[in-house]
Amino acid sequence: MLERLNEAMEHIESRLDQPIDVAELARTAMTSEYHFRRMFSALAGRPLSEYVRRRRLSVAGAEVLAGERTLLDIATRYGYGSGEGFARAFRAMHGVGPADARRTGAALQSQPRLSFRLVVEGNSSMRYRIVDKETFRVVGRKARVPLVHEGVNPAIAAFIRGIGPDTLERIAALSDQEPAGVVAVSDQLDPSRAEGTELDYYHGVATSAEAPEDMDTLSVPAGSWAVFENAGPFPQALQYLWRDVFTQWFPSNPYRSRPGPEILRVSLSEDATEATAELWIPVERATV
User: Fold this and answer.
1) Assign residue 95 a region: left if phi > 0, alpha if psi is -120 to 50, beta otherwise?
2) pLDDT by residue (tens digit) across 184-197?
3) DSSP character string of 189-219
4) Do 218 and 138 form a contact (C-beta atoms < 8 A)?
């Protein structure tokens, strides 16, 4: 898998001055476009689109300083429709406009080329199981919230506080299958997984029951799920679990992620500083 990802990186590098087809990158990596975006974001620590943009602006910066092409030629070469748009993006990354950079020979930022390698640590293992589920519903309350990678998500915390204990009891009573009890469900995430992008968050249960009129419903198609367990400080251990699934488990197992909601069941300690968790990720067998 890592070798194929590195081939995709070479593909990006050879086409920085051309449109980049993510579907073609996924074919190079021999996986789905959805899984390729997820894997890249987890391994690289930033969305694919941001990496490509920063690589283009790094190479463009070198050409600006070289002085062999006009600034408009450079802008057009790297996909900017106007000199103004190029100047804004250039300044956002380098802290100086392209004209000033050329005139003064300013120091610029650089996004290094990425390559992936395997680091063998052998000091931890991940508990998981594969579960096949028929179609089910998530029933509860829904909110549109921003994605937060580290720490408590204040929008989600405020949303849950506003639900009320009576409503939470009514929601919990609808649970009739795994994952049991009230769960946190993330759906319709932006493919980039960038901090601040929005997602649909459901605070609800997995059920076969019809939803009461005052509750929201998410229909979940039949499919396979990888179910991971962990325990540790809240919320850090839970957020690290997502990272570890995509950086450690997927590269080592014959599965890939598929579109669908991600479900988290959490039990907190009395002081809410520790948690045990079960994370459900929709998966499918990887094809070679």
Assistant:
1) left
2) 999 998 877 778 88
3) --TT--TT-EEEEEEEEEESSPPPTTSEEEE
4) yes
